[in-house]
């Protein structure tokens, strides 16, 4: 069938295997891991493949969790393997997915403050400018430019995080392991 709504495109066309699992669970089947199975899969070997895979999987995962949560009462009735505790776990997973990017941003701001001895607002600006710039690029530029900028930002943040680790280690050496910043 053709996708005629945005949610359908995200859920069906971008993560068909995850959608299949959601449908199986909603129909009363059990989905489990089998170590003895043989299957072919294509794993990303480079940054571009990995980035594109994540760009597809994250929205489809969110759409499938929302679908499962929206139909939770019926799914619990039909499927003996789905409990209220599992639905609660999925709710917590969705909450973490929504709050995760903001939490990571706040952790980056705090890491900059601790490692580079700058104030919170300066750290905030150092971190928000690349994020807003990347958002603008994602909305206005082609995929190859988005991938290039994502590679540059990933490399830059990896180097910065190495400096943060060194700064944190130095601060631990000065303040001691029992200090509040440890």
TrEMBL record:
Compartments reported by the entry: Membrane
Residue spans crossing the bilayer: 124-141, 148-172
Membrane topology qualifier: Multi-pass membrane protein
Entry GO terms, CC: cell periphery; membrane
MF terms in GO: chitin synthase activity
Class of this enzyme: transferase
Key words of the record: Glycosyltransferase, Membrane, Transferase, Transmembrane, Transmembrane helix
Origin: domain of life: Eukaryota
Pfam family, one: Chitin_synth_2
EC number assigned by the record: 2.4.1.16
Coiled coil: none
Any GO BP annotation: chitin biosynthetic process
Keyword Transferase on entry: yes
Main subcellular localisation: membrane
PANTHER family: CHITIN SYNTHASE
The name this protein goes by in its record: chitin synthase
Species: Chrysomya megacephala (Oriental latrine fly)
């Amino acid at each position: 069938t053709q996708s005629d709504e945005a949610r359908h495109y995200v859920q069906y066309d971008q993560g068909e295997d995850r959608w299949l699992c959601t449908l199986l669970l909603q129909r009363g089947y059990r989905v489990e891991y089998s170590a003895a199975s043989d299957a072919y899969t294509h794993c990303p070997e480079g940054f571009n493949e990995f980035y594109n895979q994540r760009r597809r999987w994250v929205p489809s995962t969110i759409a499938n969790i929302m679908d499962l949560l929206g139909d939770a009462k019926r799914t619990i009735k039909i499927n003996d393997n789905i409990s209220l505790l599992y639905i609660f776990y999925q709710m917590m997973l969705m909450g973490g997915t929504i709050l995760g990017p903001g939490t990571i941003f706040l952790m980056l701001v705090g890491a900059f403050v601790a490692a580079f001895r700058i104030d919170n607002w300066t750290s905030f600006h150092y971190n928000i400018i690349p994020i807003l710039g990347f958002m603008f690029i994602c909305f206005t530029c082609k995929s190859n430019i988005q991938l290039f900028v994502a590679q540059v930002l990933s490399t830059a943040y990896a180097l910065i995080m190495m400096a943060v680790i060194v700064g944190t280690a130095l601060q631990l050496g000065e303040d001691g392991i029992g200090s509040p910043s440890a």
